[in-house]
């Protein structure tokens, strides 16, 4: 009898992921700036996943997924498709777990992400994101070479791994006697949003959670408003937020987010650049464009947060030099 794959994630899955990640991932800090608090008129706590291994939260999900593979799967190798952060995470986790990795990445991915992936000894297959389909390419290569695919967000083990960000937020807030009112999460395919939502609402069911997306790519906002999955409205619109260009919410992630997430917020590139500069100046961290969308939503007053305690996830820090220079110049 064929085994039916599991398609739901629960709090226990996230706790189990935390055990697997213990000693392998980093406990990232929850940062606060009096300047940011004054500017926002609220208490802003920034979860700095920019400081995670490989520079983003993605390592959590990648390691949790690959660490559950059997020896035959590990001996054969893994494949993933990614704009960069998932690729680096898979490459690093594969190296730690003694397996090989092939990554399907867009040819225009930030140089820092391509180089970071290669630095872990992974093989890279590039493609044109505007004329080719990465899933089709990945499926074809995986079948030919017998590789195990680790999807960037529509994978329960990946979602559970990302949910450990939420567990850490809970633990860090409780240690400081804080209960947040709102959490803002950068969102591409919805894996980080789903994992955090499950973890947080287990302890704090009344906390409001918002996705944050770049203009033109607000598929989560539209889908959450309608109640069913819809694609990004303007995928031809260029954005510097390369990490958040999933064309439609995930099949597994969206039902989770529909049940937990209050709504979606949209930011433009100018607001993102300002947030990158502010994070560097006030928090002393380097944040990439996609990872800065949550802070951008706070700083541009997308919703009223006056007097609230707000957790902002800075999800990644892999920014190319030119974009970072532009952010500091523009601010």
Can you tell me about this structure?
The protein has helices at 11-21, 34-40, 58-66, 71-76, 85-96, 111-119, 134-145, 156-175, 191-203, 219-226, 253-260, 269-283, 293-299, 321-330; strands at residues 30-32, 43-48, 78-81, 101-106, 123-127, 148-149, 182-186, 208-214, 263-267, 309-314. By secondary structure, the protein is of the alpha/beta class. The chain has two domains: 11-56 and 157-330, Rossmann fold; 59-149, Rossmann fold (3-Layer(aba) Sandwich). The strands form two sheets. The chain has a six-stranded mixed beta sheet, with helices on both faces. The chain has a four-stranded parallel beta sheet with strand order 5-4-3-6, sandwiched between helices.
Radius of gyration, taken over Cα atoms and rounded to an integer in Å: 18 Å
CATH class wording of the largest domain:
Alpha Beta
Low-confidence stretches: none
Total DSSP helices: 14
Total separate domains: 2
Q: Give the integer mean of the pLDDT values.
A: 96
For this structure, the CATH topology of the largest domain is Rossmann fold
Proper CATH architecture of the largest domain:
3-Layer(aba) Sandwich
Q: What fraction of the residues are assigned to beta strands by DSSP? A: 5-15%
Distance between the termini: 60 Å
Proportion of residues in helical segments: 40-55%
Q: How are helices and strands ordered from N to C?
A: HEHEHHEHEHEHEHEHEHHEHHEH
- List the strand order in the largest sheet: 1-2-10-7-8-9
Structural class assignment: alpha/beta
Count of beta strands: 10
